Amino acid sequence: MNLTGKQNWIMQILTKGNQDGSFCDLDELLEQLGQEFDWHTTKQSLQFSIRALIKRKLIYKVGTEKRRGRNRVVLAPTFMGYQVMRG
User: Which end of the chain is flanked by fewer CB atoms within 10 Å, N or C?
Assistant: First the structure.
């Protein structure tokens, strides 16, 4: 399955997860993309890429969790998403 470079970066972050082993929310994903790949983008732009990955069944929205004082949508790779990233 062919992914764009940015979709590949998103998938790398999401399959790795947070340092504590939890899945990422949108803000954590934005922060990690900036740190690891020097890609600083808007939430709206990132949402566009996320919707494309959801449509391809590579990631899904786990649900909402209260994090950093607000409810956040948590994103996780699907089984197929892990397979695609492992090659």
Answer: C
**Mind listing the pLDDT tens digit for each residue in 56-68?**
999 999 999 999 9
Contact 72, 26 (CB under 8 A): yes
Number of H helices, E strands in the chain: 4, 3
For domain 5-86, give the CATH number.
1.10.10.10
Residues whose CB falls within 8 Å of the CB of residue 51, separated by 6 or more in sequence, listed in order: none
Q: Express each pLDDT in 1-19 by its tens digit.
A: 899 999 999 999 999 999 9
pTM higher than the cut 0.85 = yes
Locate the domains of the chain by residue range.
Answer: 5-86
Two tokens, residue 65: 């969790």
Token output for 49: 């890429």
